[in-house]
Structures are given as structure tokens and as C-alpha cells.
Amino acid sequence: MRSELRTKGNDWMALAPGKLLRIGSNPRCDVVLEGDSFVSGHHANLEHRPPMTRLFEHSANGSTVDGKSVHHKTRLLSQNSQIGFGKSLLEFRTLPGDAPPPSDLPRSGRYKCESCTRMVRRRTPKIERYEFLEFLGAGRAGEVYLALDRETKALVAIKFYVLKNPDEEQLKKDVVRFLKGLQAHSELGEHPFVIGYRDSGYIPGAGIYLVTDLVDGCDFHSLVVEQGPLEWPVAKELFEEILEGLHFLHENQTAHRDIKPSNIMAEPKEGKWTAKIADFDLTHNFFKAGLDSYTSTKTAFYSEGFSPPEQIMQFQKLDPSADIYAIGMTFYFILMGNLPLAEMGDKPAFPELEAQFPVRSPIRDPLKKKNLPTAAIDALERCLRRNPADRFANAGELKKALFGG
Questions:
Q1: In the list 281, 325, 348, 360, which could disulfide-bond 386, CB 3.0-4.6 Å?
Q2: Helix or strand (DSSP H, E) at 13
Q3: What is the count of structural domains for the chain?
Q4: Which residues make Cβ contacts (< 8 Å) with residue 309, sequence separation at least 6?
Q5: 360, 384 contact by CB (below 8 A)
Q6: Is the pTM of the predicted complex or chain greater than 0.90?
């Protein structure tokens, strides 16, 4: 595939894989937008790493991608996207054909201007081992940063969890329990489709920090929302990777407990997407340590639309079958771009919780339209049974049912 970019009305410019373009009014930028007072000197960066092309917007004035506002955020581009900067417009397209030779893209500090990097360093606590480079995003529990590990020279992601508790002594004890739980998980070993925990600690006033492998891509929720559902030939390879990673956790007596599209990362590699599972058993660690009342994770013991009904009543006793339900809903979302929302027909295992969960619809007919094999549709239907005993026992069983072997 070949990707191209142009300012409206001008000639198309081919993008080399690995190319990073600086966009702004400054003559030193790669794409110079002149005569528009809305455009900052260094307004945004555009990175092209097939199959991913994304805009890093870091101007105070903001931008638009396909009519949607983007302000200090990252946005994936679709096969035909329009990027607005005030009165200026960039057009992006992907079409059949050979791409130019790849170019080398530096991985450290490539997205932000120097003033943005200085701002990141001012707002983050000092940790001797790590140099903070970029703000990557924020969730319900805290913020995530790109950092350089000074010891290993590797780029890592550091996530902060802000804690609130007036009893400082009790908080310290709970934090110790939490960090011990993370240490146990870091000893599981490495797996190519699981994001590993590398380091963790606690800084009074800043909270707990968790250091993980850096995945230089996006989560599957963003991928589907911004680029559309995946077709079966592409999804099939990714599902195999996800299930291999989940089977690794299940073999090590670890349930994830919060499988959903936003907790699975997609990273470009050799022109294709590859998958990695993130944040395994993290919410459970907060719960066991007694920190659930201090963080917003207390609302995340179940993820509506993805978690099974038993997750509310039996959170501490969940086994891999809870992950099977969640992975079934996640795979359906990746294929269809939505969740089924009417009755599936089987009786819920916990009728008293029925009102707290969306009612499911039959999934067979929608999945047939995506040209899934009958065996794959049967397997996904079994994942979504309300009774845990009726599902696959673990990811290994599901993988055999979906793909054989």
C-alpha cells in the first residue's frame, strides 16, 4: 500500500514508512502552512508507520481530523482523512501501489517541541532512574508518560495512580501490599503478547507509579472507533496473538479481570498490527491491598458491556472463565464496532444483577456477514454464556475452538 499527503489543491507527496513530518508555520517545518494566523510555528507532527498513520496535535489552537476536534491529543488517520488547521487543510490517502523506501524514525522525544518537553518535566515528580519525555495520555486512575530508563537506555511507559487517604500510616501499609502484588507479577517472565511490568514505587503526594514496556501504537478501542471494525483475515491473526498472551496468564494462575478493547494494545510491526495485553490483574491488586477506596479504580471492578455478571458478586474469586466472557465481547466489538444489545436467550446466572448489565442480542447473523467460519461463530457464542460453567475454561480451550490445533 502507498500513502500520500498534500495541502489542498497541490500535488500529492508520497510518505515513506517511518516518516515523521513536522507541520506548522515555521519555515523549518516539513509541511509549512503559510498565511494562516491560526497555525502555530510547530503545530503538530504526523507519523507514518504502516499500517498506522497518526497525528500528534500539540498546539494551543487545536486541529480537526475528519471534522472532529483534536486538542493536545493523538488521532489515527483513516484511508482518506482531512486534517484542518484553521483555514488550512491537509489531505491524506492510502491507495494500492508500492511505498517509498523506509526512513529511520527516532523513538525518543520525537513528538513534542522543546517547550512541551520542559512542561512535562515540570509537572512530573523526580525519579532518579527515569527521564520523563512526553505525556502520553490520561485515564480514570491517573496519567501516563513516556520516559527513558537511564540504566537500560530503553524507552518505557510510566503510569501514575493518585491516592487519597487522610490516614497516612494506613496508606503506607496498603501501598506496601500493592507493590508486593506487582512484584509477583513481574516475576512471571516475558511474553511477546503481554506488556510486562518492569518497576514500581510510591512517591508521597504523587502516588504509586508503575513502569511497563512501551507499546508504540494505540489501544484497540481507539483503532476501531477511528479506523473502523477489522475484517476477519486481519482480526484472526490478532485474536491468535491475544489468546496466546491470555493463555500465558492463565497458565500462570493469573486472571486478567478487566479485559476490554482499551486494555489491549495494537502496535505496527513490519507493515502489520501486532497485539499486546495490558494492565493484567491490576484492579485486583488495588482491591487486595485495600487501595480501592483511595483510587478511581473502585468503579472499575467491572467494565460495563465487557465484564460478566458474576464479576460484581464474586470479584475476589473470579477464574479465567470471566476473562473468556470479556474476550468474547472484545472480539465482537473489534469485528463489528459495537456491542450486542438484546436478549441472548439463555438464563442469567445471577438474575438479581440483570438490570445492571446490558441485555445481549444474538450474534450469529451479524458475524455471518463478516464471513466468519461457523466454528468461530460457535466459539464466540459459547464465550458469552451467562453461566460461567457453560463457557470455555481458559484461553487455551478457546484458542483451540477458534483456530484448531
A1: 348
A2: strand 13-14
A3: 3
A4: 348, 349, 350, 353, 354, 356, 357, 386
A5: yes
A6: no
Residue type present at position 63 = S
Q: CA 163, 169, 172, 178 torsion: positive or negative?
A: negative
Could you identify the residue written with the cell 504509586? 208
Choose the final residue of a domain: 166, 195, 213.
213
Same domain, 198 and 324: no
Which alpha helices (H) appear in 65-161, and where do they start and end?
Answer: 114-123
Over the stretch 235-290, which tens digit does the pLDDT of each residue have? 999 999 999 999 998 888 777 778 899 999 999 988 899 999 987 756 555 555 45
Report the distance separating Cα 12 and Cα 40, nearest Å: 23
The beta strands (E) that lie in 197-353 are given as 197-203, 207-213, 218-219, 264-269, 272-277
Say if residue 313 is exposed, middle or buried (CB neighbours under 10 Å; 0-12, 13-18, 19+).
exposed
> Which residues on neighbouring strands pair with residue 76, listed in sequence order?
54
CATH of the domain at 314: 1.10.510.10
Mapping DSSP to helix (H, G, I), strand (E, B) and coil, where does residue 23 land? strand
